[in-house]
Amino acid sequence: MADSWATLGVDLHLEPAGSHGLRKGLTDALRDAVRTGRLAPGTRLPSSRGLAADLGLARNTVAEAYAGLVAEGWLTARQGSGTSVATGVPGTPSGPRDRAVPPSARGVPRRRREPGRPVHTLVPGTPDLAAFPRAEWLRAARRALATAPFDALGYGDPRGRPELRTALAGYLARVRGVRTDPGAVVITAGFSHALRLLGTVLRARGARTVAVESYGLDAHWGLLRDAGLTARALPYDELGTDTGALGDEGAVLVTPAHQFPMGTPLHPDRRAAVVEWARRTGGPVLEDDYDGEFRYDRQPVGALQGLAPDRVVYLGTASKSLAPGLRLGWMVLPPSLLEEVTAAKGSIDTCGVLDQLTLAEFITSGAYDRHVRSARLRYRRRRDALAAAVADRAPEVRVTGIAAGLHAVLRLPPGTEQSVVQAATWQGLALHGLSFHRHPTAVAEPLDALVVGYATPPDSAWTGALEALCRVLP
User: Fold this and answer.
1) How far apart are CA 114 and CA 434, in angstroms?
2) Maximum distance among all alpha carbons in the chain?
3) What is the pLDDT of residues 199-216, one digit of tens each?
4) 294-340 pLDDT, tens per residue?
5) What is the sign, positive or negative, of the torsion defined by CA atoms of 143, 144, 149, 153?
6) Residue 471 contacts by C-beta under 8 Å, 6 or more apart in sequence?
7) Which residues are 251's β-sheet partners?
8) d(Cα 188, Cα 313) in Å, to the nearest integer?
9) Which residues, in sequence order, are bridge partners of residue 430?
10) How far apart, in whole angstroms, are the C-alpha atoms of residue 146 and residue 300?
11) pLDDT for res 326
């Protein structure tokens, strides 16, 4: 099998641009990432082979760009150690950017009660928990605990441990194009915790309405409602969520990298439109980076936050990349919200310190990159098996939304969704129809489809779950 973006090296988000050749565009993008501090001194870069596969470039093009930047002093290269960002480059930080004291496990979608316990589940929202990297996590935990300062076991900064905030700031800059420093990162007990905090702050500011997407998770809409906010659905069409329809809402919640559950990225024109709305009205954009790291066929779409860090709240989580039971999420906040959200969280850190320290060690040691790469390859193989089986067994069903993420949308013949979901129940198979994720005020044409979470079953149960799915398709 040819090398692809899913398999090689560490992740690095770059957008080479310009009209003077691929090598110059790549060189300029790397130099700018170092100059602005997005790539911190000492950051190890992917191999030329890995980055070439990621960006769809010739390996020589990447090697020449690296060599030129080494000659200019921006990068360093040592035999056996790879290529890294040089230290002491003029105009760049010389060390960690956070020296001062100052989204996400998502809410689990509601399940309809069915008689008996299902034999298989293809409900989206959970990774393969049997594949959690227990041995690597345990090694990271031991290292983290052995080196933790004594005060780490105290009450702590409400934003979270500085080790994790520093590790996340560097990782998100490198992989997702997020522009931040550790002081703007707040650790949360998952995505739902983050959204609850933001809802409290927005309501205290006088917001009454938050725009949401026509399809999503009812748990999120419920959290907004609990905060005293009304969720108003934006229109949805063939280009995805129509952010041009934003009006006087106090904020907007979107999944721009990989819309849940439809599986499409936000159209570039609509990314620009939501940023323009935020700048014009002052309302924050809440960016749920759903499945942002799991893109299979090309480099991930960069975080929307990178376009407007002063207007976008970036929300991430370890629930899909590792496990929701860790209860670890994070927010990257603009300056205008940092103090209020920190105050809403409380005067002390409420997230488990040992898990924070372990995740920080897991990221900085490179174990997180290796785990995500391995998981991405495993899930891509499942995606391919799903698409092939459906094409062979149910040719009238169209598989969509599979360029990224941990689920697929299976478009069904009109009028068949409910009967297929019921048939799945009889087969001992738990799954959701698309209507399960449709907002009550959705402005979108109703579609008959299934939302199939192909990451959820352990490897031992995957074949049986796929066979059960194929049996119920029309």
Assistant:
1) 18
2) 68
3) 999 999 999 999 999 999
4) 989 877 789 999 999 999 999 999 999 999 999 999 999 999 999 99
5) negative
6) 427
7) 210
8) 13
9) 121
10) 36
11) 96
